[in-house]
Amino acid sequence: MEPRFVPQQEPGDRTVQDSKWAGEARAAAGCAGLLLALSLTVDAGDDGLTLPSALMWIALSVALFVILLPARIVAAPGQVTVQNLWSRRGVRTDRLAAVSWPDGIEQRLVLTDTDGGQAQIELRVLLANPALWLLLEADARTSYENGTLREGVRDLDRLIRRVERDTVRFVFTISGLQ
Questions:
Q1: What is the per-residue pLDDT for 10?
Q2: pLDDT at 65
Q3: 114 phi and psi angles, rounded to 5 deg
Q4: Per residue in 39-66, pLDDT tens?
Q5: Contact criterion met (CB below 8 Å) for 62 and 99
Q6: In what order do the strands lie in the sheet with 96-100?
Q7: Measuring CA to CA, which residue among 133, 131, 149 is closest to residue 92?
Q8: What is the DSSP letter of 151?
Q9: Does an H or E element contain 143, and which?
Q10: Could you count the other beta carbons within 10 Å of the beta carbon of residue 125?
């Protein structure tokens, strides 16, 4: 299993970014392009392609691309930035006010800082990236020690146990002990 995030190449820079984001973005574009090509081909072969139907297929393909395109996450000591097509949200992780990991289907960690900044990170991204997780955990501990992190300490503890459990399971699996 490859790490999901890799450090950037600049020496002394402790910024980490999603190394698989480009591949996931290409996959989203490929799926949308395939839908467009197939639907236009079938529509053209059936009754002939019309402008309204072509526009509808283009709109559906664009909608599929927007749905499939993952958010881009960049982290550095003290800050996490989550960027999608229309917004860019930054959170000061060394000044966290709240951490929320809601139960249920949606597996996202919601981070809120003392300035009111808020960002959501998918749990699968945290589990797949030790570098991002270590930055986030260290900054959350700093926030707790400074007294700014008042809400979500139990959710953070639950997440720590989950990451540790998954890490141990992965180590046992690759070493052949499980």
A1: 46
A2: 97
A3: -70, -20
A4: 999 988 877 888 999 999 999 999 999 9
A5: no
A6: 96-100, 108-113, 118-122
A7: 149
A8: B
A9: helix 130-146
A10: 22
Burial letters for 53-62: b for 16+ Cβ neighbours within 10 Å, e otherwise?
beeebeeebe
CB 14 within 8 A of CB 76: yes
pLDDT for 11? 44
Considering the entire predicted model, what is its pTM? 0.75
Confidence (pLDDT) at 2: 44
- Burial code (b: 16+ CB inside 10 Å, e: under 16) for 152-167 equals beebbeebeeebeeee
Q: Sorting pLDDT into bands at 50, 70 and 90, what band is 112? A: very high
* 110, 85, 17, 151 alpha-carbon torsion, rounded to 10°: -10
Residue linked to tokens 């574009």? 29
E-strand spans in the chain? Answer: 5-7, 16-18, 72-76, 79-83, 88-91, 96-100, 108-113, 118-122
**Tokens linked to 86:** 């229309």
Distance CA 98, CA 6 (A): 27
Q: What six digits make up the tokens of 127? A: 């589990």
Dihedral angle at the C-alpha atoms of 60, 63, 67, 68, nearest 10 degrees? Answer: 60
DSSP 78: T
Is 64 in contact with 35 (CB distance < 8 Å)? yes
The token duo for 166 is 């998954």
